[in-house]
Design goal:
Elements lengths: L15 H18 L13 E6 L5 H12 L3 E6 L11 H9 L5 E6 L4 H6 L5 E7 L5 H15 L6 E5 L6 H12 L3 E5 L15 E3 L2 H7 L2 E4 L15 H8 L3 H7 L4 E3 L12 H4 L6 H19 L13
Parallel strand pairs: 1-2, 1-3, 3-4, 5-6, 5-8, 6-7, 8-9
Helix pairs in contact: 1-5, 1-11, 2-11, 5-6, 5-11
Length: 315
């Protein structure tokens, strides 16, 4: 099977078969990563440019590591030291980079839709590493991989995303991808951080975290994205924690196990307590590990990979 598009701009519109194919390929690459020499020659001779206009630790490092594990050549772009500071447009920046013969562009940008715009301007395959408040498709894919690895399934799971839904690209990609895979998705957070008409996306809205905890098999905790917000959306971080923070006391009162996820970075003591983030129910570090395998799978499939991995006798 081959993906229908040569880009990964988002999960909206991807079929269940496509998502399953990406996840199955990612599990194969996770086997590769566990070898003594965790590397395959699959993308030897291909060039990937990592174009990050926003700060990133996990996503950027994960993509860079995935590229190295696939034997691709990679180049890293930093907006703070580029001609963007001199007024060069995004389109001109990318077309100049493309003139250096690149095959893939991994882009993170503060403007929603930036990857879609670039996909119409250049011949390289575009991978969305997060655009504004729109989507973050590889994060949602690694979330689904982690859940499938933990529970053996996706269909029928009840996942509640808690926090700043309005400004979260992770929430949107999770909703699109998980609902396609048969997951029952809910959202929980302050009304001021909840998008208008969110119910139209097919999710259940929980006004209180206690209600979400009772129903959920999985809680995906989001940080408060102060860098994307206006002012006055909630009284204080302390107030937010009191009403929506995942505290050890709330978990202890629950009387059942709930899988705890977080896309990072964590604001410990705000949306999640350290005892919960580091506890037995947390799969946060598993998400980070699976991120490399997922990004390897996406690059491989967009390069035309279909089935058995080159050099992988166990795939």
């Amino acid at each position: 099977m081959q993906l229908r598009s040569r880009h990964l701009l988002g999960l909206e519109g991807l079929t269940r078969d496509e998502i399953n194919h990406i996840l199955e390929t990612a599990f194969s690459f996770k086997n590769v990563l566990q070898r003594p020499i965790p590397k395959v020659p699959t993308l030897r001779g291909k060039t990937v440019v990592n174009l990050f206009f926003e700060p990133s630790t996990r996503t950027r490092f994960s993509f860079e590591l995935a590229e190295k594990r696939l034997s691709a050549d990679s180049a890293n772009f930093s907006a703070s030291t580029s001609s963007v500071k001199k007024g060069e447009t995004l389109k001109d920046t990318l077309r100049n980079i493309e003139a250096m013969r690149m095959d893939f562009v991994v882009i993170r940008h503060s403007a929603s839709g930036a990857p879609h715009f670039l996909s119409r301007c250049v011949d390289a395959s575009i991978i969305n590493a997060g655009d504004g408040t729109h989507e973050h498709p590889t994060q949602a894919l690694l979330d689904m991989m982690t859940l499938k690895e933990k529970t053996g399934k996706l269909e029928g799971l009840k996942v509640v995303i808690v926090g700043d839904i309005e400004h979260s690209r992770v929430a949107r990609s999770d909703i699109f991808g998980m609902r396609t895979m048969g997951v029952d998705v809910g959202v929980c957070g302050p009304p001021t951080l909840m998008p208008r008409g969110i119910e139209e996306m097919g999710v259940t809205v929980y006004p209180h975290i206690e209600d979400a905890l009772k129903e959920a098999d999985v809680l995906n905790m989001l940080r408060i994205q102060l860098e994307r917000q206006g002012t006055g959306l909630f009284p204080s971080l302390r107030e937010y924690r009191n009403y929506f923070g995942l505290t050890k006391e709330r978990i202890d009162r629950l009387g059942k196990d709930v899988i705890i996820m977080h896309p990072g970075p964590l604001n410990r003591g705000v949306e999640i307590d350290s005892e919960v983030a580091d506890g037995d129910c947390s799969v946060i570090l598993n998400q980070v590990t699976n991120g490399v395998a997922v990004r390897m799978a996406v690059l491989y499939l967009l390069a035309g990979g279909r089935g058995k991995l080159e050099g992988d006798d166990n795939a």
